TrEMBL record, chains A, B:
GO terms for cellular component: cytosol. This is Proline--tRNA ligase. Homodimer. It catalyses: tRNA(Pro) + L-proline + ATP = L-prolyl-tRNA(Pro) + AMP + diphosphate. It is found in: Cytoplasm. Keywords: Aminoacyl-tRNA synthetase, ATP-binding, Cytoplasm, Ligase, Nucleotide-binding, Protein biosynthesis. Its EC number is 6.1.1.15. PANTHER family: MITOCHONDRIAL RIBOSOME PROTEIN L39/PROLYL-TRNA LIGASE FAMILY MEMBER, PROLINE--TRNA LIGASE. GO terms for biological process: prolyl-tRNA aminoacylation. Residues 38-340 form the Aminoacyl-transfer RNA synthetases class-II family profile domain. Belongs to the class-II aminoacyl-tRNA synthetase family. ProS type 2 subfamily. Catalyzes the attachment of proline to tRNA(Pro) in a two-step reaction: proline is first activated by ATP to form Pro-AMP and then transferred to the acceptor end of tRNA(Pro).
Length: 439, 439
């Protein structure tokens, strides 16, 4: 992408409404624009990161055997009356009447709808296990939306739903998602810690929240710091195998949110030097809730014994739009964002120090073509402007590499290459720079 | 994908509510499930086609220089009061109040919001031209939703918005989208005809609708049949060049919807043998409306002369979800769908005639691995079941190729390869079959 043709409305001033760094940076970088309280437009740069995150989630869900569908944003109120949650859900549910006065709602989650889809066609244990997921916009009418995408009202969530014949198989499904979540967050450069947690309005008695440690996190968390060193399941982990060892490994060391924190157990189990009391950003949560929805909604499957029983279900959420904020909270400096390679909106910034200079333009065009061909998705700053402002803008948006090409360097046969994360700068030939970026 | 692990709830009976073939087939193929009137869940097979269509639209928008962002589904009523459309829009607009009694609406289109985004940062002619697009769910509260995705209420639309300094540049933007649309529909295997059309609630005095001819189309159309033979702009068309020749070529021959049909002109201009009166499915519409939104909403840009003037705008819609229906209407037979390669949910069905037979399983697994590696996205039917039912199911979902592998053939060193579109069957070695599919 050439910057002169892009839409990157950087803000010079930090908007006063933004209280945390991720919100400030997303506004300043021209990634996000508020359209109403807790409702945002994703500007081009922000959308690119959102798509990268979404794709990592999708790849890992597919790898774990989940199947993607897409449920609509609006749902019938009557569906939620079947489970009994329509009245329970309270003011966070956005309730709507259409032109014929039919009651709809903007889905805050999809347990009811996916159970309805499942029960319409699956009748036999032979069709199990099933895990259906979608990545769709949700709405929760928060009393006080704040912190940008951290607590928005219209937000993007991946939610998966597992269906099994019995509790043992249901727990295997839970374990698959647990292992998959470890991989998802790790691929984004995050250290996510599964914590024992409350189940809230989803229900059930088994649940873990995945938290990223950050000072600006909304939850207090308590854990054994050795949990930060545990290994992530490899890419070729066999999701058909017994994954209970991985789950056990990750849930033996103490880790709990303040809602379920057990101070006595914490002090008994965790050596003082390993105790960590911190703030966490919740980026995912997994639930096993058995027949909470399948029984009232009559989603029954016939077992090999000929007996019908309600499907054993779990649900598994990832806060896709919130993850943008969490990644920035975890990876930034005073100059701006520092994107991990896997989710960077562009792989490299090419900074043309003298647009209009034929040699510089030509070198930039050559680098742009080579990096595009190599799949590095370059952003070429071909605009006029003060060099200092160009550097500051590229530091602000935080692409992993900056390739700086100017007339003086070219006369000496060299360019400059900067790694954003470390600030390290090298002066080298263009060819060597391209090689380093593509390594 | 292995069918045993997929979620493909085929219907044996044709649902009585489905009046047109695309709606019937989408339900029977397990692509779609109605969740409320005009509101659908996209089941896995349907979602795969939707994503393919979306990606073609995205690639062609990017090629034409448009930049993708993503605006939210919900909008503030006050934004629509700025343009004066809040009261004009009528009962099709879904109006919502949140917990604080603030007035929101589910966006039916985005002229106001994109104008607000534009005016917040673009102030100078130097930043023009700009074309911003998104692919987002919209809602129009149709009085009588019907025909499945053809006239749904929650639907997926690509909408692009161009901003230019003067009318001449605005018309160049219009021409770029016009040419891009010709490419978009052609890539999906469709013959779309641009027709002079009414501008309706979007406004302006220049507009074309793109129609696919089909008996079940909702609009009456009149055209010179020679328009069907006109050339599509090539992949390397230069969007920076003057495209008025392409637009002129496509708009000189008579083509108009019934709303603006001019019978006298039609009879004067079109030879009787070339007259075609048919039904059309509208799959896209382009508008140029000048300052209709930019003037009341004060989206002004400063020209090189230092004078501020309202941006000249156009908007450009593609009915992404409707296109699924249009493609099926244009490409099916009595046995089911016939997907054009570019939008097929999977590239090839591998039909295992004897699951559990070691040699057949092994041959199928080998073909599956080879076709996956070649990017052909195979669907492997590894389920038990009557052979006749398996063939019927694969004809129904209509993947471009069927690779049929059974014990008798394998004993003779051969498999069967069927092309869905022609019904042509060949008996050949597995190696030759893979080569033919990948050719």
């Amino acid at each position: 992408m050439r910057l002169s043709r892009y839409f990157l409305p950087l803000l010079k001033e930090t908007p006063s409404e933004a209280q945390i760094v991720s919100h400030r940076l997303m506004l300043r970088c021209g990634m996000l624009r508020q359209e109403a309280a807790g409702i945002y437009a994703w500007l081009p740069l922000g959308l690119r990161v959102l798509k990268k995150i979404e794709q990592i989630v999708r790849e890992e869900m597919d790898r774990a055997g989940a199947v993607e569908l897409l449920m609509p944003t609006l749902q019938l109120a009557d569906l939620w009356r079947e489970s009994g949650r329509y009245d329970d859900y309270g003011a966070e549910m956005l309730r709507i009447k259409d032109r014929h006065e039919r009651e709809l709602l903007y889905g805050p989650t999809n347990e009811e709808m996916v159970t309805e889809i499942f029960r319409a066609s699956v009748k036999s244990y032979k069709d199990l296990p099933k895990n259906l997921y979608h990545i769709q916009w949700k709405f929760r009418d928060e009393q006080r939306p704040r912190f940008g995408v951290m607590r928005g009202r219209e937000f993007l969530m991946k939610d998966a739903y597992s269906f099994d014949l019995d509790e043992e198989a249901g727990r295997r499904a839970y374990n698959r998602m647990f292992a998959s979540y470890l991989r998802i967050f790790s691929r984004m450069g995050l250290k996510a810690i599964p914590m024992r947690a409350e189940t809230g309005p989803i229900g059930g008695d088994l649940s873990h929240e995945f938290h990223i440690l950050a000072e600006t996190g909304e939850s207090g968390v308590f854990c054994d710091r050795r949990v930060l060193e545990l290994p992530i399941p490899p890419e070729d982990v066999d999701y058909d195998s017994d994954l209970s060892g991985i789950v056990k490994q990750w849930t033996t060391l103490y880790a709990a949110t303040e809602d379920v924190h057990d101070a006595a157990r914490y002090e008994a189990e965790v050596a003082p030097a390993d105790r960590m009391e911190a703030r966490g950003i919740e980026v995912g949560q997994v639930f096993f809730f058995g027949d909470k929805y399948s029984r009232p909604m009559k989603a029954f499957v016939t077992g090999p014994d000929g007996v019908d029983r309600p499907a054993q279900m779990g649900s598994y959420g990832v806060g896709v739009s919130r993850l943008l904020g969490a990644i920035i909270e975890a990876s930034h400096d005073d100059a701006g964002c520092i994107w991990p390679d896997a989710v960077a909106p562009f792989g490299v910034a090419i900074i043309n120090l003298r647009p209009g200079d034929a040699a510089v333009d030509e070198a930039c065009a050559g680098a742009y073509a080579a990096l595009t061909k190599a799949g590095k998705e370059p952003l070429l700053d071909d605009t006029d402007g003060r060099v200092g402002a160009k550097f500051a803008a590229m530091d602000l948006i935080g692409l992993p590499w900056q390739l700086i090409i100017g007339p003086k360097g070219l006369a000496d046969g060299v360019v400059e290459l900067k790694r954003r994360a470390t600030g390290e700068r090298q002066t080298l030939s263009l060819e060597a720079a391209l090689k380093a970026i593509c390594a």
